[in-house]
Amino acid sequence: MFSARLIVGPSDGPGEESFDLTVCSPEWLAEQCRTLGIVDGLHHVVVDMASFDQRVLRAWLEARVSAVEADGWSTLAERLGRLGSWEFEGYQA
Description:
By secondary structure, the chain is an alpha+beta fold. It has helices at residues 26-36, 54-67, 73-80; strands at residues 2-8, 17-24, 44-46, 85-86.
C-alpha cells in the first residue's frame, strides 16, 4: 500500500488542487478487512502488486482525470474528489 497525490488544475488558467488516494493490493485490503471488520473503499485504487507498473497507473489516472467534465472548476474538483480526497473536500466558505 502507498499513498498517491494528484495535482490537477484547469487547462485554461493558473491554479492547481491536490487529490490524495491510497493505492493498495487486494491482499492489503483483505488484511484491513480482517483487522478492522469494515473498510471504506472511497479514495482507494486496487492494483495487482505482482505486476504493478507505475507508468500504467499514471496513464490510468491521467485518463480518469481527463474524462471528467464540468461547467466550472469547483464542480470539476468535486467530481475528481470521488477518485481522490480533495484538499478542500467539505470546506464551507
